[in-house]
Predict the 3D structure of the following.
Amino acid sequence: MRQIILDTETTGFYFDKDDRLVEIGCVELLNRKLTGNNFHVYLNPGRDSEEGALRVHGLTTEFLSDKPAFAAVAEDLLSYVQGAEVIIHNAPFDLGFLDMELALLGRPRFKAHVSGVIDTLVMAKEMFPGKRNSLDALCDRLEVDNSGRTLHGALLDAELLADVYINMTRGQDALLMDVGAPSEGGVARVKIDLRGFDLPVVAANAQELAAHEEVLTQLDKSSGGTTVWRKAA
């Protein structure tokens, strides 16, 4: 499966109020592994960044003055993402800007060029309800090293989001294990796909069930009959 993790930086926060893209960063995953086939461009938006946005990404008008306009890189971007599943954190924000830029060129919306879009912010809110789910918060929670992120950068943020996404989706759809060190001591890397195994289900026998019930009874006595599982039952 080919997946693209995408992030953007902009001149401001409102695509419908003349703000524009200033940076696009993408990294590629093939079968949940980073390939190094990245896409990264800075863009000349033809206007200054709002003060709040400039504090976020630090991309000045002077720095962007000799960079290409979106029109010059649109075909390369669409060719890069064509047919892939795209992963974005807070997708409506980035999609709003991409759709706006494409509309100015008379092109279909971004989703028309890809197989689908996954919003990791929606995923995070379902997994961690009531908690902060910014990219920095998820990096801290999932132990992804973001120590190099002093300013937002589209490529760096896409790389961090790739690690966050892999950590968030470790489960039945991600049972691929690497056995052995990749290079140390000449040990070869062996990949085992656990999805091919028919794992047996072993049920407890009568003796084991009786022993388990005895343990629960003793816990009941120790707690004065206030154990949660008895109340639930």
Q: What stands out?
A: Strands lie at 2-10, 21-30, 33-34, 39-42, 85-88, 116-119, 176-179, 190-193.
